[in-house]
Amino acid sequence: MTTVTQMKCACDSCLCIVSLESAVMKDDKPYCSQACADGHPDGAGCGHKGCTCHS
Fold first, then answer.
1. Are 15 and 3 in contact (CB under 8 A)?
2. Model confidence pLDDT, tens digit, residues 12-27
3. In the list 5, 7, 9, 30, which could disulfide-bond 16, CB 3.0-4.6 Å?
4. For position 55, what pLDDT does the model report?
5. Residue 18: partners with Cβ closer than 8 Å, 6 or more residues away
6. How far apart are CA 6 and CA 42, in angstroms?
7. Phi first, then psi: what are they for 36, rounded to 5°?
């Protein structure tokens, strides 16, 4: 049996792959950053190089 250790960030516009060990979990979904988990309330992206989520 294989165990999943990484998933795409649950933010629809984000391109990041996040380790389930270090993910910000919200509503049982993994996010790469607090900004993604909070739904980008201030309009900021996740801040990861190459990702243009919520910009």
1. no
2. 999 999 999 999 999 9
3. 9
4. 65
5. 6, 7, 8, 9, 30, 31, 32
6. 27
7. -65, -45
> What torsion, rounded to 10 degrees, do the Cα atoms 16, 34, 11, 48 define?
-30
Do the Cβ atoms of 1 and 38 come closer than 8 Å?
no
Q: Cα–Cα distance between 26 and 38 in angstroms, integer?
A: 8
**Which residues, in sequence order, are CB contacts of 53 under 8 Å at separation 6+?**
9, 11, 13, 14, 15, 16, 36, 40, 45, 46
| Average pLDDT score over residue span 28-52 | 93
Helix (H, G, I), strand (E, B) or coil at 19: strand
Tokens of 17: 């792959």
